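Reopening: structure tokens for the pyridoxal-5'-phosphate complex, inputs below.
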Amino acid sequence: MQPAELKTESAAYVDANLTQLEYLALNSEMNLADGHARQALTTSQAVIIDSLPELFRMSAETPVEQLESRAHGAFFHALGQHEYPGADGRVLACYSSSVAMEILSRAVVTEIDQMALLHPTFDNIPDILRGVGITLRPIEEDLLHDADLPDSLLDSVGAVFVTTPNNPTGRVVDEERLRRLAEQCREHDVVLCLDTSFRGFDPRAQYDHYAVLEQVGCRWAVVEDTGKLWPTLDLKVGWLVTSANLNLPVDRIYSDILLGVSPLILTLVEHFARDAANGGFAELHEFIQTNRSVVRGQLAGLPGLSFPDLHSTSSVERVQVDGRSSMDIWAALREENVHVLPCHRFHWFNPAEGDRTIRFALARQTNLLESCAKTLRSILADG
Ligand SMILES: Cc1ncc(COP(=O)(O)O)c(C=O)c1O
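Re-run output (same inputs, fresh job):
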């Protein structure tokens, strides 16, 4: 394509949401767009998959309550979340974290119409919240990490929503900040909502959040996710976990939407979580670190190019290119059949802030990342 055609191509998609851009990549071998896990199974994960017929039969014969409790027990303990409220029906299994998010949003809007949300973050979070009629106010990431939230903001909203580790930046709310945030929410009777879908990639996000939330005693809800971690072909669970004092119709809305997650998927999650606790997480972290180094190494030294998230351990990597629009780079890469995400839509309040960054998904085979990074290098080197 000529530069003018590339411009037309990028203009046609500038308003697409991130998932629409991810659809375009689904059939490409060079799909670095979505944050789903598409790497090969490890040796011990392959052993679990080889035992699927047996797991299927066992799942069919076991009461679902036991399967659920074994799945969330294995998953939450593997991630250091020992004080999660597993015993009294406050952990709801959903088909995905987006479904958990939809249920939470519909419950929240019965009481609350104004919410503060981290900026930037993955766009389906603001889209779902706005979709149920909630008005959003941005919380800039530096503000969240550096200081208390302003009283005026907390007085004007009924809930605060934070993604930690954040997608795409990988920034993590540490224990001290979470405690202070929870205290502020309790003082202002604001519901604190967390999306921790990416915590499996970052040990800094694996201190016991539930111990902090329960000690402080604010009203809270957490969306957890198995879906980003393991290459299980999107067989996954999103969990919606709530405080006893939340007092919103979460159970009722859950029952409006689903009966439960497949027993086989619950069993799979239990086995993958046990494997993760027995060395699988360490292996995953090393793999992602290798992929991050390969991408950074391939792109190193290009003028105007930088990596804004130097401390991220998450399964995505942002690349900033000064002087080139992210949509133009996205279109030029797409012309070579390489799919990434332009970042403007993560900046749901101010898209212009994301105009110079693209996002690579790192949960892919290393040689694929290497060749896609080389393609980007040659596009940028050609100007
Ligand atoms: C932080 C975060 N939460 C939730 C989701 C939604 O996940 P799913 O598509 O599995 O529902 C995403 C998707 O990438 C995400 O980045």
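The chain is about 45% helix and 15% strand. The two ends are 14 Å apart (CA to CA). Marking as resolved unless the reporter disagrees.
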